[in-house]
Known about the structure:
Elements: H1 9-38, H2 43-61, H3 65-79, H4 83-106, H5 108-118, H6 123-136, H7 140-155, H8 159-183, H9 187-209, H10 222-225, H11 228-259, H12 264-300, H13 304-340, H14 344-351, H15 354-376, H16 380-435
Amino acid sequence: MAKVSAVTHRRVLATAIPIVISNATVPILGAVDTGVVGQLGQAAPIGAVGIGAVILTGIYWIFGFLRMGTTGLTSQAYGAGQQGEVSAMLTRALMIGWAAGAAIVLMQLPLFWLGFRLSPASGEVEDLARSYLAIRVWSAPAAIALYGVTGWLIALERTRAVLLLQVWMNGLNILLDLWFVLGLGWGVEGVAIATFLAEWSGLALGLWLCRDAFRQPAWRDWGRIFDLVRLREVMAVNGDIMLRSLMLQAIFMSFLFLGARFGDVTLAANQVLMQFLAISAYALDGFAFAAEAIVGQALGARDRATLRRGAVLTSLWSTVIVIGISVFYLVAGGWLIDLMATAPDVRIEARRYLPQVALAPLLGVGAFMLDGIFIGATRTRDMRNMMALSLLVYVVAVLAMIPLWDNHGLWIALLISFVARAVTLGMRYPALERAAEA
Protein backbone atom coordinates (compact mmCIF):
# COMPACT_ATOMS: atom_id res chain seq x y z
CA MET A 1 0.00 0.00 0.00
CA ALA A 2 1.09 3.58 -0.65
CA LYS A 3 1.94 5.92 2.18
CA VAL A 4 -0.49 8.84 2.24
CA SER A 5 0.47 12.37 3.23
CA ALA A 6 -0.23 13.55 6.77
CA VAL A 7 -3.55 15.32 7.21
CA THR A 8 -2.92 18.86 8.45
CA HIS A 9 -4.99 22.02 8.68
CA ARG A 10 -2.83 23.43 5.88
CA ARG A 11 -3.60 20.47 3.61
CA VAL A 12 -7.33 20.73 4.25
CA LEU A 13 -7.42 24.47 3.56
CA ALA A 14 -5.18 24.18 0.50
CA THR A 15 -7.63 21.68 -0.98
CA ALA A 16 -10.85 23.39 0.09
CA ILE A 17 -10.27 27.10 -0.53
CA PRO A 18 -9.77 26.91 -4.34
CA ILE A 19 -13.12 25.09 -4.61
CA VAL A 20 -14.87 27.76 -2.53
CA ILE A 21 -13.41 30.50 -4.77
CA SER A 22 -14.29 28.48 -7.87
CA ASN A 23 -17.90 28.19 -6.78
CA ALA A 24 -18.10 31.97 -6.35
CA THR A 25 -17.71 32.37 -10.13
CA VAL A 26 -20.85 30.35 -10.93
CA PRO A 27 -23.52 32.92 -9.93
CA ILE A 28 -21.49 35.68 -11.63
CA LEU A 29 -21.83 33.90 -14.98
CA GLY A 30 -25.58 33.50 -14.50
CA ALA A 31 -25.93 37.20 -13.71
CA VAL A 32 -23.96 38.18 -16.85
CA ASP A 33 -26.01 35.84 -19.07
CA THR A 34 -29.18 37.49 -17.79
CA GLY A 35 -27.69 40.99 -17.91
CA VAL A 36 -26.51 40.93 -21.52
CA VAL A 37 -29.83 39.70 -22.92
CA GLY A 38 -31.56 42.18 -20.62
CA GLN A 39 -29.85 44.93 -22.61
CA LEU A 40 -31.92 43.93 -25.64
CA GLY A 41 -34.87 45.71 -24.04
CA GLN A 42 -37.32 42.79 -24.24
CA ALA A 43 -38.56 40.29 -21.70
CA ALA A 44 -38.71 37.26 -24.01
CA PRO A 45 -34.93 36.81 -24.47
CA ILE A 46 -34.39 36.86 -20.70
CA GLY A 47 -37.05 34.20 -20.21
CA ALA A 48 -35.68 32.11 -23.08
CA VAL A 49 -32.13 32.01 -21.71
CA GLY A 50 -33.49 31.27 -18.23
CA ILE A 51 -35.71 28.38 -19.31
CA GLY A 52 -33.12 26.98 -21.71
CA ALA A 53 -30.45 26.98 -19.01
CA VAL A 54 -32.82 25.35 -16.49
CA ILE A 55 -33.71 22.55 -18.92
CA LEU A 56 -30.10 21.74 -19.79
CA THR A 57 -28.92 22.09 -16.20
CA GLY A 58 -31.64 19.67 -15.12
CA ILE A 59 -30.57 17.13 -17.74
CA TYR A 60 -26.87 17.50 -16.95
CA TRP A 61 -27.56 17.24 -13.21
CA ILE A 62 -28.65 13.62 -13.71
CA PHE A 63 -25.05 12.83 -14.62
CA GLY A 64 -23.56 14.55 -11.56
CA PHE A 65 -22.76 11.06 -10.24
CA LEU A 66 -19.82 11.01 -12.66
CA ARG A 67 -17.98 13.70 -10.69
CA MET A 68 -18.54 12.04 -7.32
CA GLY A 69 -17.92 8.47 -8.42
CA THR A 70 -14.73 9.43 -10.24
CA THR A 71 -13.40 11.23 -7.16
CA GLY A 72 -14.03 8.28 -4.84
CA LEU A 73 -12.63 5.55 -7.06
CA THR A 74 -9.64 7.58 -8.27
CA SER A 75 -8.63 8.75 -4.79
CA GLN A 76 -8.67 5.15 -3.53
CA ALA A 77 -6.55 3.96 -6.45
CA TYR A 78 -4.11 6.80 -5.78
CA GLY A 79 -3.95 5.98 -2.07
CA ALA A 80 -3.26 2.34 -2.92
CA GLY A 81 -0.39 3.35 -5.21
CA GLN A 82 -2.15 2.02 -8.33
CA GLN A 83 -0.98 4.67 -10.79
CA GLY A 84 -2.16 2.67 -13.78
CA GLU A 85 -5.68 2.49 -12.38
CA VAL A 86 -5.61 6.25 -11.69
CA SER A 87 -5.01 6.87 -15.41
CA ALA A 88 -7.54 4.23 -16.48
CA MET A 89 -10.21 5.87 -14.30
CA LEU A 90 -9.82 9.12 -16.22
CA THR A 91 -10.34 7.29 -19.52
CA ARG A 92 -13.45 5.54 -18.17
CA ALA A 93 -14.86 8.84 -16.90
CA LEU A 94 -14.25 10.53 -20.26
CA MET A 95 -15.89 7.67 -22.15
CA ILE A 96 -18.96 7.76 -19.90
CA GLY A 97 -19.17 11.54 -20.26
CA TRP A 98 -18.86 11.49 -24.04
CA ALA A 99 -21.38 8.65 -24.37
CA ALA A 100 -23.89 10.44 -22.11
CA GLY A 101 -23.42 13.69 -24.01
CA ALA A 102 -23.89 11.96 -27.36
CA ALA A 103 -27.09 10.35 -26.04
CA ILE A 104 -28.41 13.80 -25.07
CA VAL A 105 -27.64 15.14 -28.56
CA LEU A 106 -29.44 12.19 -30.18
CA MET A 107 -32.45 12.45 -27.85
CA GLN A 108 -32.67 16.24 -27.79
CA LEU A 109 -36.13 16.51 -29.35
CA PRO A 110 -38.03 14.38 -26.81
CA LEU A 111 -35.92 15.73 -23.94
CA PHE A 112 -36.62 19.35 -24.83
CA TRP A 113 -40.29 18.59 -25.46
CA LEU A 114 -40.53 17.18 -21.94
CA GLY A 115 -38.63 20.17 -20.58
CA PHE A 116 -41.09 22.63 -22.09
CA ARG A 117 -44.01 20.63 -20.74
CA LEU A 118 -42.54 20.89 -17.25
CA SER A 119 -41.62 24.58 -17.71
CA PRO A 120 -44.35 26.02 -19.97
CA ALA A 121 -43.77 29.44 -21.51
CA SER A 122 -45.26 31.76 -24.13
CA GLY A 123 -44.81 30.90 -27.78
CA GLU A 124 -42.23 33.65 -28.29
CA VAL A 125 -40.15 32.58 -25.29
CA GLU A 126 -40.33 28.92 -26.29
CA ASP A 127 -39.21 29.65 -29.85
CA LEU A 128 -36.21 31.63 -28.63
CA ALA A 129 -35.39 28.96 -26.03
CA ARG A 130 -35.44 26.29 -28.73
CA SER A 131 -32.91 28.31 -30.74
CA TYR A 132 -30.73 28.56 -27.63
CA LEU A 133 -30.97 24.84 -26.88
CA ALA A 134 -30.36 23.81 -30.50
CA ILE A 135 -26.89 25.36 -30.23
CA ARG A 136 -25.93 24.58 -26.63
CA VAL A 137 -26.86 20.90 -26.79
CA TRP A 138 -23.87 20.23 -29.05
CA SER A 139 -21.52 20.89 -26.16
CA ALA A 140 -23.23 18.24 -23.99
CA PRO A 141 -20.38 15.70 -24.47
CA ALA A 142 -17.88 18.31 -23.25
CA ALA A 143 -20.03 19.49 -20.34
CA ILE A 144 -20.58 15.98 -18.95
CA ALA A 145 -17.03 14.79 -19.60
CA LEU A 146 -15.91 17.78 -17.53
CA TYR A 147 -17.65 16.20 -14.52
CA GLY A 148 -15.22 13.32 -14.83
CA VAL A 149 -12.21 15.61 -15.33
CA THR A 150 -13.17 17.68 -12.28
CA GLY A 151 -13.70 14.58 -10.15
CA TRP A 152 -10.32 13.18 -11.21
CA LEU A 153 -8.49 16.40 -10.32
CA ILE A 154 -10.23 16.64 -6.94
CA ALA A 155 -9.26 13.04 -6.15
CA LEU A 156 -5.60 14.04 -6.50
CA GLU A 157 -6.24 17.23 -4.46
CA ARG A 158 -5.42 19.37 -7.48
CA THR A 159 -8.11 21.89 -6.67
CA ARG A 160 -6.07 24.85 -7.92
CA ALA A 161 -6.37 23.25 -11.35
CA VAL A 162 -10.14 23.03 -10.82
CA LEU A 163 -10.16 26.74 -9.94
CA LEU A 164 -8.14 27.58 -13.06
CA LEU A 165 -10.52 25.52 -15.18
CA GLN A 166 -13.62 27.21 -13.73
CA VAL A 167 -12.19 30.73 -14.02
CA TRP A 168 -11.12 30.08 -17.63
CA MET A 169 -14.52 28.71 -18.68
CA ASN A 170 -16.64 31.31 -16.94
CA GLY A 171 -14.30 34.17 -17.83
CA LEU A 172 -14.26 33.23 -21.52
CA ASN A 173 -18.03 32.73 -21.44
CA ILE A 174 -18.54 36.24 -20.03
CA LEU A 175 -16.23 37.88 -22.58
CA LEU A 176 -17.88 36.06 -25.49
CA ASP A 177 -21.33 36.97 -24.10
CA LEU A 178 -20.43 40.64 -24.21
CA TRP A 179 -18.92 40.39 -27.71
CA PHE A 180 -21.56 38.22 -29.37
CA VAL A 181 -24.65 39.83 -27.81
CA LEU A 182 -23.75 43.47 -27.27
CA GLY A 183 -21.07 43.78 -29.95
CA LEU A 184 -22.40 41.63 -32.80
CA GLY A 185 -26.10 41.67 -31.86
CA TRP A 186 -26.55 37.90 -32.01
CA GLY A 187 -29.09 37.88 -29.16
CA VAL A 188 -30.06 34.60 -27.51
CA GLU A 189 -28.06 32.60 -30.05
CA GLY A 190 -24.97 34.61 -29.06
CA VAL A 191 -25.33 33.51 -25.43
CA ALA A 192 -25.64 29.88 -26.54
CA ILE A 193 -22.60 30.07 -28.86
CA ALA A 194 -20.55 31.66 -26.06
CA THR A 195 -21.38 28.77 -23.70
CA PHE A 196 -20.78 26.18 -26.43
CA LEU A 197 -17.28 27.53 -27.09
CA ALA A 198 -16.50 27.94 -23.39
CA GLU A 199 -17.45 24.33 -22.58
CA TRP A 200 -15.43 22.77 -25.40
CA SER A 201 -12.43 24.98 -24.62
CA GLY A 202 -12.86 24.04 -20.96
CA LEU A 203 -12.65 20.35 -21.83
CA ALA A 204 -9.50 20.99 -23.88
CA LEU A 205 -7.92 22.83 -20.94
CA GLY A 206 -9.09 20.11 -18.55
CA LEU A 207 -7.40 17.41 -20.64
CA TRP A 208 -4.20 19.44 -20.65
CA LEU A 209 -4.38 19.79 -16.87
CA CYS A 210 -4.72 15.98 -16.68
CA ARG A 211 -1.79 15.40 -19.03
CA ASP A 212 0.10 13.39 -16.39
CA ALA A 213 -2.48 10.62 -16.81
CA PHE A 214 -1.69 10.32 -20.51
CA ARG A 215 1.97 9.67 -19.76
CA GLN A 216 0.90 6.34 -18.24
CA PRO A 217 0.31 3.60 -20.85
CA ALA A 218 -2.67 2.47 -18.77
CA TRP A 219 -4.83 5.35 -20.03
CA ARG A 220 -5.24 3.36 -23.28
CA ASP A 221 -4.85 -0.15 -21.85
CA TRP A 222 -8.23 -1.33 -23.11
CA GLY A 223 -8.00 -4.66 -21.30
CA ARG A 224 -7.74 -2.78 -18.00
CA ILE A 225 -10.25 -0.10 -18.92
CA PHE A 226 -12.92 -2.65 -19.92
CA ASP A 227 -12.12 -5.10 -17.11
CA LEU A 228 -15.51 -6.46 -16.07
CA VAL A 229 -14.80 -6.32 -12.34
CA ARG A 230 -13.75 -2.67 -12.55
CA LEU A 231 -16.66 -1.77 -14.80
CA ARG A 232 -19.17 -3.39 -12.46
CA GLU A 233 -17.69 -1.42 -9.58
CA VAL A 234 -17.92 1.82 -11.56
CA MET A 235 -21.53 1.13 -12.56
CA ALA A 236 -22.55 0.13 -9.03
CA VAL A 237 -20.99 3.24 -7.47
CA ASN A 238 -22.42 5.61 -10.06
CA GLY A 239 -25.84 3.95 -9.98
CA ASP A 240 -26.09 4.23 -6.21
CA ILE A 241 -25.05 7.90 -6.29
CA MET A 242 -27.59 8.66 -9.02
CA LEU A 243 -30.43 7.07 -7.04
CA ARG A 244 -29.34 8.89 -3.88
CA SER A 245 -29.22 12.19 -5.77
CA LEU A 246 -32.67 11.66 -7.28
CA MET A 247 -34.11 11.10 -3.81
CA LEU A 248 -32.36 14.20 -2.48
CA GLN A 249 -33.68 16.22 -5.40
CA ALA A 250 -37.18 14.89 -4.67
CA ILE A 251 -36.97 16.47 -1.22
CA PHE A 252 -36.00 19.90 -2.54
CA MET A 253 -38.43 19.83 -5.47
CA SER A 254 -41.32 18.78 -3.22
CA PHE A 255 -40.37 21.57 -0.82
CA LEU A 256 -40.90 24.13 -3.59
CA PHE A 257 -44.07 22.48 -4.91
CA LEU A 258 -45.61 22.17 -1.44
CA GLY A 259 -44.73 25.78 -0.71
CA ALA A 260 -46.82 26.82 -3.72
CA ARG A 261 -49.94 25.65 -1.83
CA PHE A 262 -49.56 28.63 0.50
CA GLY A 263 -49.82 31.26 -2.21
CA ASP A 264 -47.57 33.17 -4.60
CA VAL A 265 -46.05 35.34 -1.88
CA THR A 266 -44.98 32.38 0.25
CA LEU A 267 -43.69 30.55 -2.83
CA ALA A 268 -41.59 33.58 -3.78
CA ALA A 269 -40.29 33.91 -0.21
CA ASN A 270 -39.28 30.24 -0.15
CA GLN A 271 -37.51 30.64 -3.49
CA VAL A 272 -35.54 33.61 -2.17
CA LEU A 273 -34.58 31.76 1.00
CA MET A 274 -33.48 28.68 -0.95
CA GLN A 275 -30.70 30.86 -2.35
CA PHE A 276 -29.41 31.14 1.22
CA LEU A 277 -29.10 27.35 1.30
CA ALA A 278 -27.31 27.43 -2.05
CA ILE A 279 -24.77 29.92 -0.67
CA SER A 280 -24.14 27.59 2.28
CA ALA A 281 -23.64 24.66 -0.10
CA TYR A 282 -21.14 26.62 -2.20
CA ALA A 283 -19.12 27.39 0.95
CA LEU A 284 -19.22 23.79 2.21
CA ASP A 285 -18.39 22.19 -1.14
CA GLY A 286 -14.68 22.85 -0.71
CA PHE A 287 -14.47 20.98 2.61
CA ALA A 288 -16.70 18.14 1.43
CA PHE A 289 -14.50 17.73 -1.65
CA ALA A 290 -11.39 17.77 0.56
CA ALA A 291 -12.98 15.00 2.65
CA GLU A 292 -13.67 12.95 -0.49
CA ALA A 293 -10.03 13.10 -1.60
CA ILE A 294 -8.41 12.58 1.81
CA VAL A 295 -10.74 9.79 2.93
CA GLY A 296 -10.51 8.03 -0.44
CA GLN A 297 -6.71 8.10 -0.42
CA ALA A 298 -6.57 6.90 3.19
CA LEU A 299 -8.97 4.04 2.46
CA GLY A 300 -6.92 3.03 -0.58
CA ALA A 301 -3.80 2.98 1.62
CA ARG A 302 -5.70 1.08 4.37
CA ASP A 303 -4.75 3.83 6.84
CA ARG A 304 -7.55 4.07 9.40
CA ALA A 305 -5.88 6.77 11.50
CA THR A 306 -5.43 9.09 8.51
CA LEU A 307 -8.99 8.44 7.39
CA ARG A 308 -10.34 9.43 10.80
CA ARG A 309 -8.14 12.53 11.03
CA GLY A 310 -9.21 13.59 7.54
CA ALA A 311 -12.87 13.20 8.47
CA VAL A 312 -12.39 15.12 11.73
CA LEU A 313 -10.35 18.04 10.36
CA THR A 314 -12.52 18.65 7.29
CA SER A 315 -15.64 18.50 9.47
CA LEU A 316 -14.06 20.84 12.02
CA TRP A 317 -13.35 23.50 9.42
CA SER A 318 -16.78 23.13 7.83
CA THR A 319 -18.39 23.59 11.26
CA VAL A 320 -16.41 26.81 11.80
CA ILE A 321 -17.61 28.05 8.41
CA VAL A 322 -21.29 27.25 9.02
CA ILE A 323 -21.27 28.94 12.43
CA GLY A 324 -20.08 32.09 10.67
CA ILE A 325 -22.71 31.68 7.94
CA SER A 326 -25.52 31.17 10.45
CA VAL A 327 -24.52 34.25 12.44
CA PHE A 328 -24.32 36.24 9.21
CA TYR A 329 -27.83 35.15 8.21
CA LEU A 330 -29.21 36.19 11.60
CA VAL A 331 -27.50 39.58 11.46
CA ALA A 332 -27.69 40.43 7.76
CA GLY A 333 -30.43 38.10 6.49
CA GLY A 334 -32.93 40.94 6.18
CA TRP A 335 -30.50 42.92 4.04
CA LEU A 336 -29.93 39.89 1.78
CA ILE A 337 -33.67 39.40 1.39
CA ASP A 338 -34.11 43.06 0.40
CA LEU A 339 -31.30 42.63 -2.12
CA MET A 340 -33.00 39.66 -3.79
CA ALA A 341 -36.63 40.78 -3.60
CA THR A 342 -38.22 44.20 -4.11
CA ALA A 343 -41.86 43.28 -3.38
CA PRO A 344 -42.68 44.42 0.20
CA ASP A 345 -44.99 41.46 0.91
CA VAL A 346 -42.32 38.95 -0.19
CA ARG A 347 -39.73 40.68 2.01
CA ILE A 348 -42.01 40.51 5.04
CA GLU A 349 -42.92 36.87 4.42
CA ALA A 350 -39.29 35.80 3.91
CA ARG A 351 -38.23 37.42 7.17
CA ARG A 352 -40.65 35.16 9.05
CA TYR A 353 -38.50 32.14 8.24
CA LEU A 354 -35.05 33.61 8.91
CA PRO A 355 -34.60 31.61 12.16
CA GLN A 356 -35.10 28.33 10.26
CA VAL A 357 -32.75 29.48 7.49
CA ALA A 358 -30.08 30.41 10.04
CA LEU A 359 -30.42 26.95 11.61
CA ALA A 360 -30.19 25.15 8.26
CA PRO A 361 -26.37 25.31 7.85
CA LEU A 362 -25.83 24.13 11.45
CA LEU A 363 -28.25 21.22 11.10
CA GLY A 364 -27.09 20.39 7.57
CA VAL A 365 -23.31 20.39 8.01
CA GLY A 366 -23.29 16.82 9.35
CA ALA A 367 -25.14 15.47 6.33
CA PHE A 368 -23.04 17.50 3.93
CA MET A 369 -19.70 16.35 5.34
CA LEU A 370 -20.75 12.73 5.77
CA ASP A 371 -21.79 12.73 2.11
CA GLY A 372 -18.24 13.76 1.21
CA ILE A 373 -16.71 11.16 3.54
CA PHE A 374 -18.88 8.35 2.18
CA ILE A 375 -18.26 9.39 -1.44
CA GLY A 376 -14.50 9.24 -0.84
CA ALA A 377 -14.89 5.77 0.68
CA THR A 378 -17.32 4.78 -2.14
CA ARG A 379 -19.74 3.49 0.51
CA THR A 380 -22.46 4.41 -1.96
CA ARG A 381 -24.85 1.61 -1.04
CA ASP A 382 -25.00 3.07 2.47
CA MET A 383 -25.59 6.52 0.96
CA ARG A 384 -28.44 5.20 -1.16
CA ASN A 385 -30.10 3.26 1.65
CA MET A 386 -29.74 5.98 4.27
CA MET A 387 -31.07 8.55 1.80
CA ALA A 388 -34.14 6.38 1.26
CA LEU A 389 -34.66 6.24 5.02
CA SER A 390 -34.19 10.01 5.32
CA LEU A 391 -36.70 10.59 2.52
CA LEU A 392 -39.22 8.50 4.44
CA VAL A 393 -38.55 10.56 7.59
CA TYR A 394 -39.08 13.74 5.55
CA VAL A 395 -42.41 12.50 4.17
CA VAL A 396 -43.64 11.64 7.67
CA ALA A 397 -42.49 15.04 8.94
CA VAL A 398 -44.30 16.82 6.09
CA LEU A 399 -47.53 14.96 6.83
CA ALA A 400 -47.23 15.76 10.53
CA MET A 401 -45.92 19.34 10.45
CA ILE A 402 -47.73 21.09 7.59
CA PRO A 403 -51.25 20.63 9.06
CA LEU A 404 -49.97 22.15 12.31
CA TRP A 405 -47.83 25.07 11.14
CA ASP A 406 -48.29 25.49 7.37
CA ASN A 407 -45.11 26.84 5.74
CA HIS A 408 -43.30 26.92 9.08
CA GLY A 409 -44.03 23.20 9.29
CA LEU A 410 -42.65 22.70 5.79
CA TRP A 411 -39.38 24.35 6.81
CA ILE A 412 -39.22 22.25 9.96
CA ALA A 413 -39.71 19.09 7.87
CA LEU A 414 -36.82 20.13 5.62
CA LEU A 415 -34.57 20.69 8.64
CA ILE A 416 -35.60 17.30 10.04
CA SER A 417 -34.51 15.70 6.75
CA PHE A 418 -31.04 17.25 7.19
CA VAL A 419 -30.76 15.77 10.68
CA ALA A 420 -32.07 12.39 9.48
CA ARG A 421 -29.39 12.24 6.76
CA ALA A 422 -26.65 13.02 9.29
CA VAL A 423 -27.91 10.55 11.92
CA THR A 424 -28.45 7.66 9.52
CA LEU A 425 -25.06 8.07 7.80
CA GLY A 426 -23.41 8.60 11.18
CA MET A 427 -24.70 5.20 12.27
CA ARG A 428 -22.87 3.64 9.33
CA TYR A 429 -19.59 5.52 9.88
CA PRO A 430 -17.96 2.89 12.17
CA ALA A 431 -18.34 0.29 9.40
CA LEU A 432 -16.65 2.73 7.00
CA GLU A 433 -13.64 3.01 9.32
CA ARG A 434 -13.46 -0.76 9.74
CA ALA A 435 -13.30 -1.10 5.95
CA ALA A 436 -9.99 0.76 6.02
CA GLU A 437 -8.44 -2.21 7.80
CA ALA A 438 -10.26 -4.96 5.92
